[in-house]
Design brief:
This protein is α+β, with helices and mostly antiparallel strands. It contains four helices and six strands, in the order H-H-E-E-H-E-E-E-E-H. The protein has a single domain (3-144), classed as Roll (Nuclear Transport Factor 2, Chain: A), CATH 3.10.450.50.
Length: 151
């Protein structure tokens, strides 16, 4: 059994589900209690701060659902995928879409974004994602959406 090929297939299935806006299928690629970290997510409100850390079943599904609602044409293109024999997978993915609703603290300006993201996965022996982390240039994202804050 080639564990790196299995891990790659799981991750590609995850991104296919993402392209189809299928949150349940995305979550189904993940183990129960899978760790979730979208590192740049930090939305400051009047009463609380929302961060992109937790589990797929709590924070992940909520963020994905909100993303698909705010960007109904959001899609992804996997441009690079590297896996090792221990179930670690790194994926460079260009995520793009046009805003049609509020996203976190970013009001709807009907702007389009296209931005490379780095996703790092840990796929377990059972073929399910145990951890997903994502990184992107949030300042660039906010600039593309016309929502740059000036201090």
């Amino acid at each position: 059994m080639d564990r790196s090929s299995d891990a790659e297939a799981t991750v590609l299935g995850f991104f296919d589900a993402h392209r189809h806006h299928n949150v349940e299928r995305m979550a189904g690629c993940c183990a129960d209690g899978a760790e979730f970290s979208y590192v740049p997510v930090e939305w400051w409100g009047k009463q609380r701060v929302v961060r992109g850390d937790g589990t797929v079943g709590t924070v992940g599904k909520a963020l994905w659902t909100g993303l698909f609602e705010a960007f109904p044409d959001v899609t992804n293109e996997v441009t690079s995928l590297v896996a090792d024999g221990d179930g670690n997978v790194a994926a460079e993915v260009v995520v793009s879409g046009t805003q049609s609703g509020e996203w976190g603290t970013t009001g709807n300006r009907r702007r389009r974004f296209s931005l490379p993201h780095l996703f790092v996965f840990r796929v377990g022996d059972g073929g399910l994602i145990e951890r997903v982390a994502a990184y992107w240039d949030d300042a660039q994202l906010r600039e593309q959406l016309g929502a740059v804050d000036v201090d």
